[in-house]
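Quarterly update from the structural biology core.
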Amino acid sequence: MTTEVRVVDRAGLGAVRCELEGGKARIGLGKNVNARYVETGYGMLFFTYGEGLSASIKHLMVDGKTLAGVGHPNTTLTLRESVALVRYFNGVLCAPAAKIDIPCGRDVWLILFTPMQ
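Predicted structure, tokenized:
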């Protein structure tokens, strides 16, 4: 059984889709996305709010890297638990993540918050 996931597209990419199936997320990119590769693993989002919002993201662990080649990358990501520590407006969140590398220095991150039962 496949479940479509809602993607919040804050980067304005417009062509990322994600489906859940059996403990894995299938990530697909549309034809108008010219990506070099998609790197999947477990990511960490650090954020702080002082005089302005500051956020950074990086991979803690990389499971795989799918090259674009001729077509557009489609890859799978193993779902894991999400963990967060937040106090006031400062915190860190660790969750399954995919980094979509687009030429000219524009990288797009997809962070998957798994459903809770």
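The longest strand covers residues 53-67.
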